[in-house]
């Protein structure tokens, strides 16, 4: 399943409401964000029990403020609408472990 772009607070709230979700808060001008994108796409295809989403911080400033995103990329891991982990940066090993642990 591909990484789905989220636009707006309502769409975000609906997306993370139930189940497991990984949200990538990114910026189009962010080099590290571009570097990690293929890894997330690969994971979204292999870990089909988890929903993967991407939020462009420049298009969703209110959502990013509410979710306390201060640097890019920021990855938030949700279970039934609740944040269970946050990772800032592109440490692939940390992301891999967090995705594997999301249950």
From TrEMBL:
CDD domains: TRX_family (cd02947). The record marks 31-32 as: Contributes to redox potential value. The record marks 24 as: Deprotonates C-terminal active site Cys. This is Thioredoxin. Transmembrane segments: none annotated. The lineage of its organism: Eukaryota, Sar, Alveolata, Apicomplexa, Conoidasida. Belongs to the thioredoxin family. It comes from the Eukaryota. One of its GO terms (molecular function) is protein-disulfide reductase activity. SUPFAM superfamilies: Thioredoxin-like. The active site is at 30 (nucleophile), 33 (nucleophile). Keywords: Disulfide bond, Redox-active center. Disulfide bonds join 30-33. Pfam families: Thioredoxin. Residues 1-103 form the Thioredoxin domain.
């Amino acid at each position: 399943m591909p990484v789905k772009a989220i636009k707006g607070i309502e769409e975000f709230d609906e997306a993370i409401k139930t189940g497991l979700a990984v949200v990538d808060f990114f910026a189009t001008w962010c080099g590290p964000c571009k570097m990690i994108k293929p890894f997330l796409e690969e994971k979204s295809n292999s870990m089909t029990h988890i929903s993967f989403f991407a939020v462009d911080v420049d298009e969703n400033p209110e959502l990013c403020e509410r979710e306390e995103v201060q640097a890019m990329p920021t990855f938030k891991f949700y279970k039934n609408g609740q944040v269970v982990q946050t990772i800032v940066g592109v440490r692939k090993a940390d992301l891999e472990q967090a995705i594997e642990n999301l249950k």
